[in-house]
Structures are given as structure tokens and as C-alpha cells.
Design a protein that fits this description.
This protein folds into two domains: 80 residues, 2-Layer Sandwich (Phosphorylase Kinase, domain 1); 139 residues, ATP-grasp fold, B domain (D-amino Acid Aminotransferase, Chain A, domain 1). It has six helices and 13 strands. Bound molecules: cytidine-5'-diphosphate. Pfam families: SAICAR_synt.
């Protein structure tokens, strides 16, 4: 597989074309950002940790019958993925109240949410990823009602699989964000699943083991990501 030119550089990942027209290389960089890119820092080993973590999760999801763009891990920091047409809508499921929900609605952090909530946000950094709904997505052509229904179904399937996986490592999956795209006309899971895009707490102490450590300046960010990985059976290469 030959990596060709850079197609796009996001806040934490870069995307490259390859000699195959329907495959791309995702490069996970050490760059870390929060608050819509207002806070940026490079954290040593983060690219490797998130790439290896994401590969492990995507394989578990594929095993559970969830279609994803993931093909295979190529190196410590690169993975091969299917080229999709991205749907510019982020899907967020929350099992426990934290982050934006607490800020917006004033509910108590840590409250169990029954049933788990489902929210949509527009992928638009300049506008701070505003919250949207199905009506707006349909009217503005961001996704069709059928695509939105499938995205919701897959997002909850992911919840079922990952809540159990993390519970096995004494971890609570508090919330997470997923992105989808179209491949061969079908909705498939894209982007990444790593502690950068979800909240994970220790089940007993409720210690935060995700990107909130970076957002809140708690330190030990990558050590926490590695701890989470180890607890669910991820083996990180020595670097
Ligand atoms: O980021 P913030 O806490 O303001 O937003 P949230 O709505 O509470 O985020 C819910 C979950 O989605 C968290 O696990 C975030 O890390 C994740 N998220 C993300 O990965 N990317 C975004 N643009 C927004 C949320």
C-alpha cells in the first residue's frame, strides 16, 4: 500500500490518499486539542496510543456486526480505512450526565441517564459544533431520515457492545461521539473511537480516564489512555 498525498489535516489526524482509489491512510498525530481548537498541545505517544486503541475497538465492533471504515492497522500511528463520503453530523450517546449536558441543562454530573440519551451535532468547528435535530438535518440536506435512523440504530448498537467491553475493565462508558459516512450507498461508522472522543470513568472511584484530564488540566492524560487500553486487553507496542 503506497501512501500518496495529504488530503486533509484535522486537529489530531491527517488523511492521505493511497494507490487504491477507495482506500485512505489515517495518521494519528500527537496533537491534542480541546474547546474547538482553542487549546492545543502535543502529547508524546498519543498518536500511537489512539491508533492502537482505535484499531482494537473497531475490530470488536466489526466482530459484533457493526460496519466500519476500518481495514487494518499499518504501523504504530497509521491505519488503512475505506474512503467514505462523510455525513457532517456527530451522534452523541450519554449513559451518565457529564460535560455539555451538565452545562446546558444543569443536571448533576454523574447522574445515571435512563434511557440513555441521543443527540445530534453539526460538524462545524467555526460554529462550535452546534446542536441540531433530525428536522434540521433533513431540511439542510446533511442526512436523510433513513440515514439518520440507521445512524441512531448503529450508535446504540455500539453502546451495547462497548458498555460491556469497558465494564469488563471496571470502567463506565459515560458518553461518546460517533461519526458516520456513506460507502457503496450504505451508512458505515467512520472517524475513530478513542479516549479523545468519549468519557470513561473508573467504575469504583469515578476517576476520569479520558480527554477530560486534558480539558481540566489534570495531567497524566496518556497514562490514563494506556491504563484504559490495558484494562480491556489492548497491547501497546514499546516505543
Ligand atoms: O466536549 P463537551 O464536553 O463540551 O461536549 P459533550 O456534548 O458533553 O460531549 C459528549 C461526548 O462526545 C464526550 O465524550 C466528548 O468527548 C465527545 N465529543 C467529541 O468527541 N467531539 C465533539 N466535537 C463533541 C463531543
Amino acid at each position: 500500500m503506497e501512501k500518496r498525498q495529504e488530503l486533509y489535516a484535522g486537529k489530531a489526524k491527517s488523511v492521505y490518499t493511497t494507490d487504491a482509489p477507495d482506500l485512505l491512510v489515517l495518521e494519528f498525530r500527537d496533537d491534542t486539542s480541546a474547546f474547538d481548537g482553542k487549546r492545543k498541545e502535543a502529547l508524546a505517544r498519543k498518536g500511537m496510543v489512539n491508533n492502537v486503541f482505535n484499531a482494537f475497538i473497531m475490530e470488536r465492533l466489526e466482530d459484533a456486526g457493526i460496519p466500519t471504515h476500518f481495514e487494518k492497522r499499518l504501523s504504530n500511528t497509521e491505519s488503512l480505512v475505506k474512503k467514505m463520503q462523510m455525513i457532517p453530523v456527530e451522534c452523541v450517546v450519554r449513559n451518565i450526565a457529564a460535560g455539555g449536558l451538565v452545562k446546558r441543562l444543569g443536571v448533576e454530573e454523574g447522574a445515571t441517564l435512563t434511557p440513555s440519551t441521543f443527540e445530534l451535532f453539526l460538524k462545524d468547528d467555526d460554529r462550535g459544533d452546534p446542536m441540531i435535530n433530525e428536522s434540521l438535518a433533513e431540511t439542510f440536506g446533511w442526512a436523510t431520515p433513513e440515514q439518520l435512523a440507521r445512524m441512531k440504530e448503529l450508535t446504540f448498537k455500539v453502546n451495547h457492545v462497548l458498555k460491556q467491553l469497558f465494564a469488563g475493565g471496571d470502567l463506565l462508558l459515560v458518553d461518546y461521539k460517533l461519526e458516520f459516512g456513506l460507502y457503496d450507498g450504505k451508512v458505515i461508522l467512520g472517524d475513530e473511537f478513542s479516549p479523545d472522543g468519549c468519557r470513561l470513568w473508573d467504575a469504583h472511584t469515578r476517576e476520569k480516564l479520558d480527554k477530560d484530564r486534558f480539558r481540566q488540566g489534570l495531567g497524566g492524560v496518556i497514562e490514563a489512555y494506556e491504563e484504559v487500553g490495558r484494562r480491556i486487553g489492548v497491547t501497546f507496542p514499546e516505543v
